[in-house]
Amino acid sequence: MKFGGSSVADASRIKSVADIVISRAENEKTAPVVVVSAMKGVTDILLSAASAAESGDSLYKELVQDLKQKHHQAVKDLVSDNSIGVTLLIDIDAILGELAEILHGVELVKECSPRTGDLISGFGERLSSLLLAAHINDRGVPSEAVDAREIIRTDDAHGRAAVDFEVSGELIRKRMDTETGNPTGKSVSGDSRIFVVTGFIASTSQGVATTLGRNGSDYTASILGAALDAGSVEIWTDVDGILTADPRIVPEAWVIDEISFQEAMELSFFGAEVIHPFTLRPVIEKNLPVFIKNTMNPSAPGTRIARTSAPKDRPITGIASVDDVSMITIEGGGMVGMPGIASRIFASVARTGANIIMITQASSEHSVCLVCRREEAAIAAAGLEKDLSDTLHSGIIRSIRLNDGLEIIAVIGENMQGQPGLSGKLFSALGDIGVNILAIAQGSTELNISFVIKGDDKKTAITAIHRAFLSQRPRG
Ligand code: ADP
Ligand code: ASP
Ligand code: MG
Fold it and tell me: What whole-number percentage of the chain has pLDDT above 70?
């Protein structure tokens, strides 16, 4: 059971989380393994403190004080037992003391490397896991906070480290097994403790702190679920499930009761932040269902992500979007039929580390378009200018252009397969409201049609598509 930042935003939310977890443990006679994010906003504060310290701004000291006050207040509201409270305050102050020392180091060396950034940004989860475990203990149910750096092993790609599943699996099973006497985390006698594991953070084999990327606590939960052969993974958040579109953009979006692994992966990859894009990787093979549930509305059924297929009456399943992307257009008549050009383009982009979200090629216009996040696109375009300078001089490539301020919209759904006329309806819905489409891509599986528009057109475009395809809420 993973609870996100808004689910642990303050003491009253943390109490609701404990209600859900404890009643699950009691009713089902199982001890769920719990994963928590940092309290809402804390990871952002930590990153601001790191950049303030790096630039010699003493604001970072105030930010550490704010964090101290926030967590001390939560202890006051969550723990009544004196000895639990004293121990918790000592632990919290030790962690914040360590944070202040590291930030002071950053101020002195005037540098915050990605490695140090990972160390700093993970402090929030260390604090929130202690808070929740102490509160559960305070209510008379045995609970223990676990630092995921002990049990999730990654490489050293700081900012978004890659998980070593084999080693992590062994560490996870060993850690949970010693305490519960049962590798599944399930309590046979009903007396096992509830582990509260830090989301988001991990470590290398050298013990260096890493992170799984922003929003990565969802991924932590599925790594644990797969390693422990759990019956299911539950992601508890602040909405009733996966909706047909981002509810902040389309208020009339509705909850999808059931969705396939593939469709949910496409939606998350294309920006539906309700789950981290890697969350489903560890569970698909094991066919472990994932539920998205609302901490503020626990009786709502939520969304079930599983091996399933979309109801046939549903033309599309959902719409997602990626903000603030840029398009690199490489153009030139000499590229046509010239072997090796594409591989040079992709090798050049790969060297810069930029992640390509979308690719299109139009042979009649002799162009290749690559879409990346803005900062990565600028670096990739500069790399291409350099690596392809010979072809620019010889005229094989005429130009390499960079367009900023764009948006990718992705329309997702298994039922789009073999549905003639669907793209026609899609693009005429956009044409009717005067939205210009700059590039289009469709995978051969027809699970996804994605296209690029100007960022300013985002809301009108998504609203129009929702109205054209998803205005009929399924009954029941
Ligand atoms: P948490 O803090 O629980 O991890 P997130 O903020 O990461 O929560 O993700 C939940 C948010 O994702 C929702 O509040 C919603 O605004 C946003 N969101 C974007 N697209 C979707 C979608 N298709 N369905 C549901 N929520 C979405
Ligand atoms: N606290 C981390 C973040 O804000 C991880 C998470 O919330 O999932 O990105
Ligand atoms: Mg999240």
Answer: 95
Predicted local distance difference test score (pLDDT) of residue 27: 86
Tokens representing residue 295 in the block: 């901490």
CA 319 to CA 321: how far, in whole Å? 7
Beta bridge partners of 51: none
Amino acid at 143: S
**Which tokens hold the place of 117?**
């950034």
Distance CA 211, CA 219 (A): 11
For residues 184 and 213, the model is more confident at 213
Q: For ligand 2, is residue 122 a contact (CB within 6 Å)?
A: no
67/343: higher pLDDT: 67
CA of 278 to the centre of ligand 2 (A): 14
> Scanning the structure block, which residue is given the tokens 């953070």?
201
Say how far apart CA 310 and CA 316 lie, in whole Å.
Answer: 9
Query: Measured from the CA of 276, which atom of ligand 1 is nearest?
Result: 7
CA of 85 to the centre of ligand 1 (A): 33
DSSP state of 414: G
Ligand nearest to the CA of 198: 2
Mean pLDDT of 443-458: 90
- Atom 5 (ligand 2): residue with closest C-alpha? 215
Q: How far apart are CA 366 and CA 396, in angstroms?
A: 10
pLDDT at 446 over 50: yes
Neighbours of 7 (CB within 10 A): 26
What local confidence, expressed as pLDDT, does residue 157 receive?
A: 96
Answer yes or no: is pLDDT of 186 > 60.
no
